[in-house]
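Students often ask why we bother encoding 3D structure as a string. The short answer is that it lets us treat folding as translation between two languages. Here is a chain of 621 residues written in the first language.
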Amino acid sequence: MARTYRSNKELLLMEIVKLEIETDQSVIEQVIQVHQNRLPRLPVPSLADTGLKYLDTVEPLVLPFQYQVAQENVRDFIEGQGKELYEKLLLRNQTEPYSWLETWWNEKAYFEYRERLPINVSFQMEFPDCSEDTRGEDRGAHLIFLILLFRDRLESGEIEPEVISGNQNCMNAYTKFFNACRIPKYGKDYTRTYKSKESKHIVVLLNNKFYSFDVYWKDGRFLSPPQIALQIERVIELETKENSNDPPVGFLTSENRDNWARVRDSLIESDVNRESLDIIERAALILCLDKGSVSSKDLPELLFHGGGSGKNSGNRFWDKPMQLCVMENAKGGIAFEHSRIDGIPCARICETVLDWESNGVTYIHQDSFEPMDEPVKLKWDLNEYHLNEIEKAKFSFDRAINSLEFVIEHFDVYGKDYIKSCDISPDSWLQASFQLAYYRMHDKISPVYESASTGRYRNARTETGRTATREMTDFVKLMIDNTVPKIQKIEKFTLASNAHRSYMKDASKGYGVDRLLLGLKILNEESGQPMHPIFLDEAFAKSSHWSLSTSQLNLKKMKSVSFGPVVDDGYGIFYSIGKQKIVISVTAWKNSYPTSAYIFKEHLLESFSMLADLFEMQPKL
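And here it is in the second language, the structure alphabet:
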């Protein structure tokens, strides 16, 4: 049967006439392994240098006597117990196959975290709109096809590693997007991955119900967009014909991880439930067909948490790494589960798929459809305990959603072109804006977590960029003093920008402070010795209380990204700095006065204006 691809840009996929997948997932791992073997290991920073850098980061955040205590604790740690722990860490670096940090980070930062995944861990990536006459099921079918095409090209070795600042990035995360699922276990979760031959199907959620159908033929080719659309239409017909009010099982995955683990253990005592969960967890990916047409303004928040039990929060399975969500009016995006994947590879998948979509990559059938098996509705065997837990999960998640403030701002007065003309790093400009907004609102300097990618190293992920430096603190305090000349403020701003860039450069090379301190703290806990005072004093607590948790990506076709705050009285801030535009997402909890995402956004816009005014630009906000 002949099939062709068409593209408006250099016939992007003409070379892929027959799409085939490998029969074993080890193939993709072997393809990636060729690149992985060339990557260096994550370094172990010097203990003494880390101690000095750590003290630099805590000084702006604590009182003088607290800083003095921190100095004494750092000195004692480096000269005493820290030496012993550091030697153990060096030994671990020699015995761990790829990275001394990898297992610790995945477990401590993610798998041992017991709170709900949506809002607290997961994040959304919003897709641009398509033509108004496009149906949700048609766009969903085309996007599924393109995502499967990405997986196919990944398995064939056609997807090259990202290159950032001249360094090729680790591709380990790409083995966790497809055929995978986070599994809840009491105390500590884990990720289960499956072979490609075990994951030839997708799962479609519609009205909180689960349906499944194969997206691959027996010879390894996968379905075309019209074929996928036909299967989705069959799912809709099944749902319309049945018109039942099934319990929204997906809500269970939004719960506290220990609660969900207990319920899941009970569920899998039934063969019916075990089979349904197995189908979901093995699925290549999930398509969430959400009810209703949504506005562009409301879309990001619905992608982020579903909107509650009255909307689409139960039309999810939050344990899956990647859920494609499409509304009836074809607006959509992806909800990602963060435990094994970070923003850069997620953005790459999204931007690649969106580029293919916008360039007109289509799949044209020249012959009639081949017979396809009908989609299957997944069944559940639920007792009173399960039904009660679903209701409790609905109530709990609704309460969390109602407690969240969620703001998206598309600031189009200026972007990186103007900022660069001021000889200031665009990233430093944004970090200064965040700190200035926070200081004007809360009357204090905030610890800042800026995500710094360490992807140049094998199986490495991120390091913390501690951007609340002495220089940044001095600049922010000077900015609110109207008696200080602009030229002096600009000089301080330049110093703050240089200090910020220097720290981020070190962090991206693996020479921050937080990951080494995490490793040493874990070894301290495992040693059975009393916890050293360096991990117990006010400086350590305050400097790692991330009231400002920030991360940026370069958005090309995507419209926004959002994630939640990491502390109760903090903000989750995503930002993207375009040439003429800045995209900001801010989240915060309503019940932690005076924290407010809405008020913070207003202060942030004023900060943008204040910084521009330093350089004689007076934008009208």
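Translate back mentally: The longest helix spans residues 486-508. Keep this in mind for the problem set.
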